Write the structure tokens for this entry.
Amino acid sequence: MEVGFLGLGIMGKAMAANLLRHGFRVTVWNRTLSKCDELAALGATVGETPAAVVAKCKYTIAMLSDPSAALSVVFDKDGVLEQIGEGKGYVDMSTVDAATSCKISEAVKQKAGAFVEAPVSGSKKPAEDGQLVILAAGDKALYGDMVPAFDVLGKKSFFLGEIGNGAKMKLVVNMIMGSTMNAFSEGLCLADKSGLSPQTLLDVLDLGAVANPMFKMKGPSMLQGSYNPAFPLKHQQKDMRLALSLGDENAVAMPVAAAANEAFKKARSLGLGDLDFSAVHEVLKGAGGSGQA
Ligand SMILES: NC(=O)C1=CN([C@@H]2O[C@H](COP(=O)(O)OP(=O)(O)OC[C@H]3O[C@@H](n4cnc5c(N)ncnc54)[C@H](OP(=O)(O)O)[C@@H]3O)[C@@H](O)[C@H]2O)C=CC1
Ligand SMILES: O=CC(=O)O
């Protein structure tokens, strides 16, 4: 199967490499074109523009930072819309809001192309290992065509119906993840300040009802103050913002998520946006957790 791949950031690079490893023919494009070199060394073809990739491939996947990037790659000059059409499918796996997905879907359909949104749950390591959880919605026939690729990229795919449902599900999941990260960080600070060993707290948590892979994976590095980015904090804050907006639209009170969003915003203002989202721990430590009284 031949696929195009637009966007070779932390996730896109791992996903495109995975497809190549599994025998897919992949044509890649990235805004910063030099990032294509590594994929070319693995056997990918490089496209000069998103339009060139879509012209070459029946199916094109995108994995871009945020709504403005997702829209730009479709609607701007040399974008996807210039070459999408009958018999071609476009699959956006970026985390965006439902309105962005709907706008892209409408434009692609107007050109007689097919569109699926398919944001993913799971970070850099699951992307490398093909263990993502895929939250797809939109054109059912295109979804069916993409199953061989989704089977390589993920451990499970959900088809959630109409466009927007994938985006919404992803935002709900990441709202919970961002709020949980804040509670976890506060707990580490509270243990430390009250004379307990945070490492022992990690051991206790791991044996109880709230044990989860995120605490296990991020806890030790948070105690070291080490935040090598797997999921950049700026993207988690974008997801909190979009989830809160979904809450506004549906009149759902989300005081916990709102407080977590403030902490992520504060972290961004301190220049921590490109670090892993667990770097929000620095804000909570600074707020009196483990910092100087
Ligand atoms: N990292 C993670 O753990 C996960 C991330 N996600 C989501 O996946 C998406 C990608 O995340 P990730 O790979 O971590 O992000 P990165 O920041 O590592 O990569 C972002 C990508 O978007 C491109 N981009 C940004 N702005 C534009 C633009 N205006 N036009 C064209 N391309 C643009 C970047 O290109 P360039 O190289 O030129 O900057 C890069 O290829 C995000 O929506 C994120 O929320 C979902 C699950 C997990
Ligand atoms: O969006 C991030 C993730 O880990 O999932």
